[in-house]
Amino acid sequence: AFSSSEELVLVDRRSSGIAVLTLNRPKALNALSDSLMRALAEKLQQVDADAALKAAVVTGTGKAFAAGADIKEMNSRSSYSDVRHDNMLAHWSAVSSIRKPIVAAVGGFALGGGCELAMSCDIIIASQAAKFGQPEIKLGTIPGVGGTQRLIRAIGKSKAMELVLTGEMLSAEEAEKAGLVSRVVPVGTELDAAVAVAEKIAGFSTPVAQLAKECVNASQEMSLAEGLRFERHLFHATWGLEDRKEGFEAFVAKRSPEWKHR
Ligand code: CO8
């Protein structure tokens, strides 16, 4: 058993119905090793399975959210057949299959895999000190877990192409202007801001929040016509929930709803 200081991902489970997951390899700027990403996926899956938790926050430490996939670890794989056989980084997709909302609190570097991890979360809150980039080209490789796909959807082709082809970073302010992050807050307040957003979400019906997340994410994968049909089906499906009935009845009766989360 590891003591908590050796845990790669620290979990702070709060009575407000959220869990704060802190990437904890500060000496390596939270480089995302295989074991760190497996720990993160496992803890997020535990959040998903825990009925008392409604949302998660993922954050980093010190000057890094995460400075990328672990370059030293990846360098130990020497050939195409090695990385293909191991399907290197494929297990990262576990993050995007989490059903509960995840808010990323980015206080520093979110580079390479770190930027891709932040983009796999649902909302990014950044501090003024945050920096985003896909520097893989400087290492002689390309982004491997969404940097060429999610980034273009977030900020458009020209800006995404410039980041991917030059390896330059975006400041927090530029990232906000480009639409990569939802909000920039003063240095040191990003975790509180992200927790407040997660707690706000946690105050609503869990199944409804999950349906809403699924619908918004579907827009990234579907044509507009398919997406609108998908949305209509899930909208209608909320009529199968006690919480939909409760929300409407509470409004009509001018009282606060009491969510049953079913
Ligand atoms: N992997 C491993 N170790 C890292 C990483 C990383 N990504 N980033 C930083 N570290 C380590 C450094 O090696 C250093 O360790 P040590 O103290 O043992 O020398 C420690 O963290 C502190 O880093 P620095 O001394 O470099 O700190 P600075 O403040 O001087 O610089 C930077 C900060 C600018 C963030 C700098 O560390 C840097 O450029 N890091 C690498 C950023 C990068 O290139 N990230 C992309 C990685 S590749 C990636 O994520 C690919 C994902 C998909 C790939 C798919 C491939 C098929």
TrEMBL record:
One of its GO terms (biological process) is fatty acid beta-oxidation. Keywords: Disulfide bond, Fatty acid metabolism, Glycoprotein, Lipid metabolism, Lyase, Signal. It comes from the Eukaryota. Its EC number is 4.2.1.17. The keyword Acyltransferase does not apply. Belongs to the enoyl-CoA hydratase/isomerase family. This is Probable enoyl-CoA hydratase, mitochondrial. The lineage of its organism: Eukaryota, Sar, Alveolata, Dinophyceae, Suessiales.
